[in-house]
Amino acid sequence: MKKLIYLSLVTISFIAVSCNKNQEVSKRENESVVNFEQTYSEKDVTSIIQSINSSEKVGPGWFEKVKKWFNDHSGTHLFQGCAGGGACGPCPGLCIGGATISGNNNNGDSATPETYADGLRVYGLSLIENKETHEQAMMFVFNLDLADFTKDGYFYIENDISASSNMSSAMGKNNIKFIKGKYIVVFDETTHYYYALVETVMN
Q1: Hey, which residues does 176 pair with through a beta bridge?
Q2: Which of 23, 42, 133, 177 has the fewest CB atoms within 10 Å of its CB?
């Protein structure tokens, strides 16, 4: 499993890790995310999901700290045959409106008929932490609108994208950035949700 940033690192170490990550990301800027290798394995994601759902919290000891649902646009121009004149088309992926994604708290698992008609879809954000190492990671959670975000079992993020300040604060963070990539989506039999572990830089 790829190493994620540890929040307990001192400031100098955090900056060094962040710079290395940015250099790595900049090399991939002109590559199509569709051609990327998947970022995490299905086994990695399944192991964490099972640990979260286990009452004994076995394995790596991951647990879920916060879970919020947000409305936001879906769809990107990643795939052949994708049409649409705006920033977001009818293709699966995470819609990017500028460099930031925003949204509203939503206590349900689906958009209202009005917002759905406006092209809004619902996804969840779940902050998880390893109890032993305090390593933190972000998971996207999908339910009814899975097809609007995924294709061939993958969730695509076309470019690095930051969460808005209201989304970051809802997750207890100052800043959250989701890294461009191709992420495997895993179905969980216990919750009946679909999960994608996304490479994230946050503080």
Answers
A1: 202
A2: 23
Task: Measure the CA–CA gap between 43 and 1, rounded to whole angstroms.
Answer: 9
Q: Is residue 3 a part of any domain in this protein?
A: no
Which residues have a Cβ under 8 Å from the Cβ of 98 and sit 6 or more positions away? none
Cα(43)–Cα(47) distance, rounded to whole angstroms? Answer: 6
166-189 confidence digits (pLDDT tens): 889 888 899 999 999 999 999 999
pTM: 0.79
Residue 31 covered by a domain: yes
Q: Is 95 in contact with 75 (CB distance < 8 Å)?
A: yes
**pLDDT tens for each residue of 88-147:** 677 888 876 667 888 877 777 778 888 888 778 888 899 999 888 888 999 999 988 898
Domain range holding 137? 11-202
In a domain, 5, yes or no: no
6 found inside a domain: no
d(CA 24, CA 197): 19
| Domains contained in the chain, number | 1
How many Cβ atoms sit within 10 Å of the Cβ of residue 21?
18
Instruction: Please identify which residue in the block is written with the tokens 């916060």.
Output: 66
